[in-house]
Amino acid sequence: PGNVSRLRRFPLRFLQPGLKLPPDRLAEADYWAPELYAHRQTPDPLTDIYALGCVFYELLAGQPPFGGDTIAEKMELHASEPIQPLENHRDMPDGLSEVVAFMMAKQRPLRYQDAAEIADKLEGYLKQSSQSAAPTPKPSETSYLSWLQGQRERIPAHLVDDGKPSTNDQP
Questions:
Q1: pLDDT tens digits for 30-61?
Q2: Helix or strand holding residue 45 (H, E)
Q3: Cα–Cα distance between 100 and 118 in angstroms, integer?
Q4: What's the rounded Cα separation, in Å, for the pair 31 and 103?
Q5: What 3-state DSSP class applies to 140?
Q6: Rounded distance, CA 30 to CA 74, Å?
Q7: Residue 76 burial by CB count (10 A; 0-12/13-18/19+): exposed, middle or buried?
Q8: Are 122 and 99 in contact (CB under 8 A)?
């Protein structure tokens, strides 16, 4: 409602009924801005920007930005340690690591101040072809049945079940 995007805590939990959430919220601490834990600040857009930076970091690096076995350890690392440059994990386009680093700045005034600023920075990393590509139509029953017919035509005729009882005694 209102065209507002939100980051959800464990968004896939509703798709996985048997999934148990960690009782101590340890997994969530991978995305908490330092001020949430240290200063007990109320979440706001800047804490969301930090969390989104952590998500980007994890997507690009294949692991969360900081380790730690407890919430306190993770939050201490978020508050005091610099992130490892993404280039240490893989080749990055020029400047992308810096965009993520500014999203995860420890000092709130150094973070990007709104999502539009981040979108502007990331827009340059989109491939030109993806910006001008026509949207792919959604699959329909008609397209599915057409695909099935094409698959059926590839099967040798003697293997196709035409619905008539077989006179062949072979199993």
A1: 888 998 876 777 888 999 999 999 999 998 99
A2: helix 45-61
A3: 9
A4: 12
A5: coil
A6: 7
A7: middle
A8: yes
Tokens at 171, concatenated = 């199993």
pLDDT digits (tens, 9 = 90+) for 86-140: 988 888 888 899 999 999 999 999 999 999 999 999 988 876 445 555 666 667 7
The packing angle between helices 96-103 and 115-123, to 10°, is 170
**Other C-beta atoms within 10 Å of 16: how many?**
9
Measure the CA angle with vertex 125, ends 122 and 131; round to 5°. 100
Find, among 74, 81, 83, the residue nearest to 26 by Cα. Answer: 74
DSSP 39: S
Token pair 């006179």 in the structure block, residue: 167
Two tokens at 107?
């000092």
